[in-house]
């Protein structure tokens, strides 16, 4: 009984991840500039990869036919999900900062640009 509950919860999390990937793809097509599109990519990475990896770990724990290998698969999924959770935002922040500093991507429409204000004051190089 508990294995079916784990399988259903895992499948729900995988479906949520697919929906997050679809939303991120729509955001990539609809958003106006590089930085907002980068936000959509990060949402797609976290929601579309982290959540399904946790879902796979839960689903595998409920799959008793895998025997002892299910624990290895669940552990690998959880470790991969945690690495992704920590490294994806850092990578997107580094890409956004590099694009802003090199002026490769224009910010339009721009309301406030604190990084540019700090650069003009000489606080940031």
Automatic annotation (TrEMBL):
Q: Name one GO molecular function term.
A: sodium:proton antiporter activity
Please verify whether the record's keywords include Cell membrane.
Answer: no
Give the transmembrane region(s).
6-26, 38-62, 68-88
Query: Which keywords fit this entry according to its UniProt record?
Result: Membrane, Transmembrane, Transmembrane helix
Cross-referenced InterPro entries? PhaG_MnhG_YufB
Q: Does the keyword Translocase apply?
A: no
The record's listing under Pfam families reads:
PhaG_MnhG_YufB (PF03334)
Write the protein's name.
Cation:proton antiporter
> Which lineage ranks, top first, belong to the organism behind this chain?
Archaea, Thermoproteota, Thermoprotei, Desulfurococcales, Desulfurococcaceae
């Amino acid at each position: 009984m508990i294995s079916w509950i784990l399988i259903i919860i895992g499948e729900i999390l995988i479906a949520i991840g697919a929906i997050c990937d679809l939303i991120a793809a729509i955001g990539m097509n609809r958003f106006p500039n590089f930085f907002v599109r980068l936000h959509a990519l990060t949402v797609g990475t976290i929601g579309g990869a982290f959540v399904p990896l946790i879902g796979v770990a839960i689903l595998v724990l409920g799959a008793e036919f895998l025997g002892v290998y299910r624990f290895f698969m669940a552990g690998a999924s959880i470790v991969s999900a945690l690495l992704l959770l920590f490294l994806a935002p850092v990578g997107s922040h580094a890409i956004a900062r590099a694009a802003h500093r090199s002026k490769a991507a224009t910010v339009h429409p721009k309301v406030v640009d604190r990084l540019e204000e700090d650069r003009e004051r000489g606080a940031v190089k």
